[in-house]
Amino acid sequence: MKAFVYDGPGRRSWTDHADPELAAPTDAIVRIDAVTICGTDLHILKGDVPEVERGRILGHEAVGTITETGTAVTTVKPGDKVLVSCISACGRCEYCRQAAYGQCLGGGGWILGHTTDGVQAEYARVPFADTSTYVLPSGVSDESALMLADIVPTSYEVGVSSGGVKPGDTVVLVGAGPIGLAAITNAQLFSPSRIIVVDKEPARLDAAKSFGADVLVQPRDAAAAVAEASDGLGADVAIEAVGVPETFELCTKLVRPGGHVANVGVHGAPATLHLEELWIKNVTITTGLVDTSSTPMLLRMLAAGRMDTSRFVTHRFGLDDMDEAYDVFAHPQDSNALKVALFRS
After folding, report:
1. Is 198 helix (H, G, I), strand (E, B) or coil?
2. Residues 344, 31: contact at Cβ < 8 Å?
3. Could you tell me which residue ranges the Alcohol dehydrogenase-like C-terminal domain spans (predicted)?
4. According to the model, what pLDDT value does residue 14 have?
5. What is the pairing mode between strands 339-343 and 28-36?
6. Do residues 141 and 184 share a domain?
7. Would you say residue 301 has pLDDT above 90?
8. What is the rounded end-to-end Cα distance, in angstroms, of the chain?
């Protein structure tokens, strides 16, 4: 088969690779029908995630068709169309029993495209298939479901839910990439009074407006905009959706006393925590890896027409165009790309 292989920082290739095989009774083999690229994949290519070894197939977001299952798999079968979750769950360890699948101790968590081969390929081995795949409801397209593999549950769980967004809140989102836009969609479920989006790229601010943001600002104007929208108090919830020190530190400056900073971005460098300013402000800071415990609920909303994911995908490719898709996704300032989707021909 063909697969997208990481060969060290800055080196990648869409190349021939051995077909995946079942390695455990709980595995499934999935024919990849639709796949996308995540900002985390770009961090890997930069060398920000040193756990990823050379030779690793990247990717952790896909929709596909089950072609083979291990003897212990009982809830999916060959022929089923499934969403492959970015998080794998053994279903048995202490964290999985708390639905904290991202912290799985039994061999799961974020493993696809990280510590085991991922899904940017023609076929993939999916561990713990019973608890790590979701059969698509009738009428849900591959492309719509694909957005629920990572960005929608991540922004919901790690951003909006962990941040405690409530009706009437002033919410500031720093970063209008796919995660930030998904956070706009999810924050609207809780009726905040204002959603302020901060980004330096005009095209992404335009996208944020189309997703329902109320105020759009450049980073240099963020403090004044948040103060004006909140009667000088600051944001109730500040969601960091970039993953660089400057954006995290900006969130800590924009949040009000008693407010919440929810960090969603993947960081590859240290950020300064200004405790000399924050210690007295009763500020809560949360970090986290998505658990995808919300995925069944989000799929029900998608099937019922209560959630629209169609606006995320701006560019579409065939699987064999993986290199081009990465170039487009990695340079949104030139391409205006939000999410790219690649499909089996």
Report:
1. strand
2. yes
3. 178-293
4. 98
5. antiparallel
6. no
7. yes
8. 14
Per-residue pLDDT reduced to its tens digit, 23-59: 999 999 999 999 999 989 998 999 988 999 999 999 9
Clarify whether residues 229 and 270 are in a common domain: yes
The answer to whether the CB of 309 falls within 8 A of the CB of 302 is yes
- pTM greater than the 0.85 cutoff: yes
CATH of the domain at 197: 3.40.50.720
Q: Which residues have a Cβ under 8 Å from the Cβ of 224 and sit 6 or more positions away?
A: none
Q: What is the CATH number of the domain that holds 327?
A: 3.90.180.10
Number of domains in the chain: 2
CA distance 187 to 155: 9
The single-letter code of the amino acid at 9 is: P
CB distance 157 to 163 below 8 Å: no
Please indicate, yes or no, whether residues 50 and 31 belong to a single structural domain of this protein.
yes
pLDDT band at 271; cut points 50, 70, 90: very high
Q: Are 67 and 37 within 8 A, CB to CB?
A: no
Sheet strands (E) in the chain:
2-6, 12-16, 28-36, 56-57, 62-69, 81-84, 123-126, 133-135, 170-174, 194-198, 215-217, 235-240, 255-263, 284-286, 313-318, 339-343
User: Could you tell me the residue range of the domain that residue 160 belongs to?
Assistant: 153-287
CA distance 34 to 167: 36
Q: What percent of the chain has pLDDT over 90?
A: 95
CB 44 within 8 A of CB 52: yes
Of 42, 59, 36, nearest to 144 by C-alpha is 36
Q: Residues 242-260, buried b or exposed e (16+ Cβ, 10 A)?
A: bbbeebbbbbbbbbbeebb
The C-alpha atoms of residue 55 and residue 32 are separated, in whole angstroms, by 19
Could you tell me if 80 and 94 are in contact, meaning their C-beta atoms sit under 8 angstroms apart? no
What whole-number distance in Å separates Cα of residue 35 and Cα of residue 48? 22
